[in-house]
TrEMBL record:
PANTHER family: PROTEIN-EXPORT MEMBRANE PROTEIN SECG. This is Protein-export membrane protein SecG. It comes from Thermoclostridium caenicola. It comes from the Bacteria. One of its GO terms (molecular function) is protein-transporting ATPase activity. The keyword Iron-sulfur does not apply. Its main location: membrane.
């Protein structure tokens, strides 16, 4: 059981690293270079972009990371 949880833990860790590296910074792209109008215009479709997908995926992976960490702590104590 410990080996399976450790493998899942490593996969989640690598996935978090990859997703965070794929995300662009807050000031990158068109919205960072043009202030004001571009942000409100492109902000409407932000839920459909890759940024929103990566953001949601990062959140879910972070939750999975915490849960797996707690499981590992209990498995290593017993």
């Amino acid at each position: 059981m410990k080996i399976v949880v450790n493998i899942i833990y490593l996969i989640i860790c690598l996935a978090i690293i990859a997703i965070v590296l794929l995300q662009s910074g807050r000031s990158a792209g068109l919205s960072g270079s043009i202030a004001g109008g571009a942000e409100t215009f492109f902000g409407k479709n932000k839920a459909r972009t890759y940024e929103a997908l990566f953001s949601k995926l990062t959140g879910w992976l972070a939750i999975a990371f915490i849960v797996i960490t707690v499981i590992l702590v209990f498995l290593l104590k017993g």
